[in-house]
Amino acid sequence: MAVAALAVTDEVALPIRAVGDLAAAADVSREEVAVITQCAALGGKLPFDDGSVGAVLAVIKNVESLREQLVAEINRVLKAGGRVLVQSSAPSSSQKPNTDIERKLLMGGFVELQASTASSQDTVQSVTVKAKKASWSVGSSFPLKKATKALPKIQIDDDSDLIDEDSLLTEEDLKKPQLPVVGDCEVGATRKACKNCSCGRAEAEAKVEKLELTAEQINNPQSACGSCGLGDAFRCGTCPYRGLPPFKPGEKVSLSGNFLAADI
After folding, report:
1. Are the C-beta atoms of 39 and 48 separated by less than 8 Å?
2. DSSP 73
3. Which tens digit of pLDDT belongs to each residue from 54-98?
4. Where are the alpha helices (DSSP H) in the chain?
5. What sign for the dihedral angle of Cα 151, 155, 156, 158?
6. CA atoms of 6 and 4, how far apart (whole Å)
7. pTM for the full model?
8. By CB distance 3.0 to 4.6 Å, which of 146, 175, 193, 204 could disulfide with 197?
9. d(Cα 196, Cα 63) in Å, to the nearest integer?
């Protein structure tokens, strides 16, 4: 059974004004509005199929009368996107009775809530809350459309002047790099330090001259007594290796970096 609009109340009678408000909200005539009074006697069930009613009006005596079961039944019989109106009367001194009604409708799955109040001369205010049943159903799915921005189009004029990459190079950039000249330090078997030595060979030779040792004695030290390599504590007074660190026979003697800096 399908109806254009439905008005329900727990009271014995329903005001004609309320039926007119429902008809106007549903854009139907009053004759198309079905009315159910004392709906509590139905055991919490409305005699309509799922999604068969276009709009529903619930007239309640107080906020407590709007039970969760009634809200669920209204949601069941309403079509997707259908309207629901809840009207209630409360003393003018009541603190926002529409807030409790809105909360119950939100918990029942309704959206787009709007509330309004009107006070009469007998210190009673009429509260009307309008809401809408969501157009989607429980368990439904829909794809999310991701907004994409198109990249700007760039037009290239074939006749436009293009920069020649070679013109960005200077004559200095085109010159072949000059390799450093190898000094006499790397020439010959003796490998003597050159005049402008910068590899450290001149300093090594100066150390050898200071010790009055030959290069062979530095690079391949030998000891006749066998104690020269143990250090100055084991060397005799005429040992050529006095002042040098301990060494192993046949291994090059390492000279400290500050050896030349010491004053004699």
Report:
1. no
2. H
3. 888 888 887 888 888 888 998 998 888 888 988 887 665 555 667
4. 16-26, 68-77, 97-107, 171-174, 201-211, 215-219
5. positive
6. 7
7. 0.47
8. 193
9. 105
Between CA 143 and CA 145 the distance in angstroms is: 6
Q: Using the structure block, give the residue that is written with the tokens 């109106």.
A: 85
Angstrom distance (rounded) from CA 74 to CA 57 = 9
Tokens representing residue 256 in the block: 């400290």
The string of DSSP letters for 179-203 reads PPPP-GGGSTTT----TT--SSHHH
Residue among 60, 92, 93 nearest 74 (CA): 60
Whether residue 126 contacts residue 94, with contact meaning beta carbons closer than 8 Å, is answered with no
- Measured from the Cβ of residue 119, the count of other Cβ atoms closer than 10 Å reads 10
Q: In the chain, helix, strand, coil percent, each to 5?
A: 30, 20, 50
Q: Which two tokens stand for residue 72?
A: 């669920």
At 161, the pLDDT band (50, 70, 90 cuts) reads low
- To the question of whether residue 39 is assigned a binding role by annotation, the answer is no
